[in-house]
Design goal:
about 230 residues, mainly alpha, 9 helices, rod-shaped
Length: about 230
């Protein structure tokens, strides 16, 4: 099959190939935009966490807070939520960080639903084109009054090209959808580990600032009161 014949088949099946073409453009646009958005987040998370934890390890709360305020990475935004509270119980701090983490991940998942929707709908659009092509083939048989292959070839070709394009778009969309969801999962795991390190560093700051005579009677760790600035 030469390119001219293939192009003519696409043109004949415009009722499905045009929507599928638009879907494929959306898939490429969303994938590129999200890929660029996710690029470097895991590395940035490690770097910001290391810097903040090192500052807290030196009991330098103003520097740790300034690092989070001057950094526009997602993990810095999460840390800002936690460091904005003072003298709160450990359980409350963990809930605050957990909520901030989920909000950030929800923002990072934005637009992924487009890939999932296209991946689910594209085969049905192709199936619709298949049905239309077969209907045209039977209509041509009725008009010609015979059932020779030459009569139905155009309709069958249109039906097959619609199915092929629909499956192709669906496969590509679902592949990128699954890949980006795995990427989001890895980023979320990195956020969780970073928040754990932040809480541990804040507990260290709290324990190091308690008077020596009261440390022996300090409450259990689960009920500590981190002192973010």
């Amino acid at each position: 099959m030469d390119m001219a014949t293939f192009a003519r088949m696409l043109q004949d099946g415009w009722l499905t190939t045009v929507p599928l073409g638009l879907c494929s453009i959306l898939v490429v646009a969303v994938t590129i935009e999200r890929f660029l958005r996710y690029r470097g987040i895991e590395k940035q998370t490690r770097e910001v966490t290391r810097a903040v934890v090192e500052a807290l390890g030196k009991r330098d709360l103003p520097t740790a807070t300034a690092l989070c305020k001057t950094n526009d990475t997602p993990i810095a935004q999460i840390f800002r939520e936690g460091l904005a509270w003072k003298n709160i119980a450990l359980e409350d701090l963990e809930r605050i960080l957990g909520t901030a983490r989920q909000e950030t991940l929800s923002e990072l998942r934005r637009s992924l639903w487009i890939l999932g929707t296209i991946g689910s709908l594209a085969p049905f659009i192709g199936l619709f084109g298949t049905v239309v092509g077969i209907m045209k083939a039977f209509h041509q048989i009725a008009v010609e009054g015979s059932g020779g292959f030459a009569v139905v070839a155009a309709g069958i070709s249109e039906a097959l090209i619609a199915t092929a394009v629909g499956l192709g778009v669906a496969i590509i969309a679902l592949t990128f959808y699954n890949y980006l969801n795995v990427k989001i999962g890895l980023i979320g795991n990195g956020f969780a580990r970073a928040c754990e390190r932040l809480v541990q560093a804040l507990l260290y700051v709290e324990s190091s600032t308690q008077p020596i005579e009261t440390r022996g009677n300090a409450p259990e760790v689960g009920r500590g009161h981190p002192l973010p600035a």
